Amino acid sequence: MDKNKALYEMQMWQQNNCGRFEEYDTLWEMFRTVVTSSSWGTSEFGGPVWLMDFSLANLKKLFPDNPWLEAMEKEWEKGKWDHNGQAKSDTLNRFSEWFQLRAEHLVNQLGLGNVIIKQESSYDGNISFYGWCLFLDVLQDLVGGIVERIHHQTMLRFNFSCAEIDAVIRGNFLTRLKSDTMVGRFPGGYGSGFHYYKHSDAYGNCYLLEHFSETKGYVIPETAPEKFLMLIVNDLMECKAQGYGNKADANGNTVPYPQMKFEQYIDIHCGTGYHFRPTSDVFQWWSKYGLTQEIRIELPQIDAKYGEFWHRQFPPKQNWRTIK
Q1: In sequence order, what E strands does 123-201 have?
Q2: pLDDT tens digits for 54-65?
Q3: Which of 22, 200, 215, 253 is the most buried if burial means most Cβ atoms within 10 Å?
């Protein structure tokens, strides 16, 4: 990366009030590198989850001696608020959200499932998990957080059709689980009474997944939320693959096996009855200057021996730590 250009663009960004919608080539270079150098199973934790990591630590690995990152590290040193780990520096929050905004649009346009977007700091927490709403409801019950839904008044305002409103109410759409109230250290006391705990003097409350995991014993708490999410998602997908948990609920809904790519996403700004739009293979970002960026995503080819259960091609690189 051209350091002089990066320094110039950073100064321009600061003069423009650190806006999320301004376009800078050097920020796009960082964004594109993170996206194109990662995929499902490529993170240090592995698993059937794509970790798009825009944290300062990961960006520094990819772009050492970068003026943007050197400046943001100084902002990081100002500390964080206790709530959500949000940075005290508004500049750092805006820098993080520049990446989060574009990454979320990419996930939605392409209809990607099982994606974690990690950033340094945000008002919504520093990680978001993207997938089908019904699956995220199960995940939320285990880890906390907030599943982002479209409010009924918003659907009325943007003229959603009756079929679209029904799909949203039933949870048949791509959305995200925000981490702003997700527990900071796993496991936590979330759930509806079907979780079992065992206390350890060394590890605190240890957690037994009640679904049909290959894991035996009690799970020692994990301090990295993204690792915990990858492990638990893998176990939930294996549970579905083995045919457990396929009974419909009172509303006739069955929690789906997560897909790598979904066929549609919601765009609330479309005309009546057309808010569910087909997903694409190419991410396009439009700014006030027109079409600014295009990124083509190639999905991994799944070995035929795994059939429809694609998660088995991406096993976790680290197992649960357990005690008896």
Answers
A1: 127-132, 144-147, 174-182, 196-200
A2: 999 999 999 998
A3: 215
**Sheet containing 50-54: order of strands:** 50-54, 115-119, 127-132, 174-182, 144-147
Report the run of H or E that residue 285 belongs to, with start and end: strand 282-287
Q: Is 53 strand, coil or helix?
A: strand
Give the pairing type, strands 282-287 and 196-200: unpaired
Specify the DSSP class assigned to residue 82.
T
**Residue 82 neighbours by CB distance under 10 Å:** 7
Q: What is d(CA 22, CA 175) in angstroms, rounded to the nearest whole number?
A: 25
Is beta strand 322-323 parallel, antiparallel or unpaired with respect to 218-219? antiparallel
Query: Is cis: bond before 187, omega within 30 of 0?
Result: yes
Crossing angle (nearest 10°) for helices 225-241 and 133-143: 120
How many other C-beta atoms lie within 10 A of the C-beta of residue 65? Answer: 10
pLDDT tens for 90-124 read 999 999 999 999 999 999 999 999 999 999 987 77
What pTM was computed for the model? Answer: 0.89
Cβ atoms of 19 and 101 within 8 Å: the answer is: no
**What Cα–Cα distance (Å) separates residue 69 from each residue in 49, 115, 232, 260?**
26, 24, 32, 32
Query: How many whole angstroms separate alpha carbon 154 and alpha carbon 313?
Result: 39
